Amino acid sequence: MGCFEFYCEKQFTMKTTKIIFIGCLALGTLLVSCSGDDGEKGPPGESIKGDPGDPGADGLSCWDTNKDGIKDNSEDINQDGSWDALDCQGEQGPQGDQGIFEFYFTDFEGLPDSNPPSEFVQSDVDNADWLVTQLDLILNSNASLDYVTNSALINNYIADNQFTEISIAFTSSSTSLVEFDISPSTEDSYDYGLWLLNGEVVQGISGILEEPITIRFTAPAGDNVLTFRYEKDDSLDDGLDLIVIDNLMINNVSNVGKVNLNLPELPEGASYYTEKGAKTK
């Protein structure tokens, strides 16, 4: 190759490179100049609500045992003239075991139709049931059943040589404290209100008190039955011929602390009944 040819080829190569470089620079400038600020956000598009679908078919009712949608007489299980969820109840299952509890209290307020709380069981071998009623707890020999705002548990009327009792069962994990208020209005030393634990007399009271007293005693751990009993001798009455129980509490003794388990002193006209059944002042 001559000198002229070499020079011309070199010049051509440099020129080509320069042209490519200038072209790339121009393209970059063009790209930069095309990237402007974002425009404002456009308004939201309109949404079109579709037509509602057809209602679904009714499901099967629980009482419809043959699934034909017809109210058959045999499907009205409780025969109340209505076909509803009450016809779907199964037979009542067996009663569960008594639960272990640490605390129970009732002041006998707010109970319908003079019924004691559902935990109480009326005896089926005595002469009368107990009831919850509102009456004045300040009793005296001339008192009558004055209906006031305080409710309490009382025995129903019994005749001479009769008795009435009601019980509540409880199960505790340890020793329990049993506490209640009692007001007797009975023939002193003859007609007694008694409290029993598991069928054994703990103590009793007779006579007429103008104010209730608070009784406290303990029950062992395990299953227990507390019973209130009113019994009459073979003659005579005095006062209202009843006892009044109120503010019953059964509590785990460890939650109570030190308490006085002695029987309160009684005024003249009232007597306790010992565990052996002897009547004492």
Provide a descriptive summary of the structure in words.
With 281 residues, this protein is mainly beta. The protein has a domain at 103-280: Galactose-binding domain-like (Jelly Rolls, Sandwich). Helix content is 11%, strand content 30%. The chain contains 1 helix and 13 strands, in the order H-E-E-E-E-E-E-E-E-E-E-E-E-E. It has one helix at 3-34; strands at 103-106, 120-122, 130-134, 151-155, 163-172, 176-185, 192-197, 200-207, 213-219, 222-231, 242-252, 270-273, 279-280. The strands form 2 sheets. It has a 7-stranded antiparallel beta sheet with strand order 2-5-10-7-8-12-13, with no helix packed on it. The longest helix has 32 residues, at 3-34. It is elongated and about 105 Å long. The N and C termini lie far apart (151 Å). Mean pLDDT is 80; it is low at 2-8 and 137-147.
Search tags:
281 residues; mainly beta; Jelly Rolls; six-stranded antiparallel β-sheet; 1 helix; 13 strands; disordered N terminus
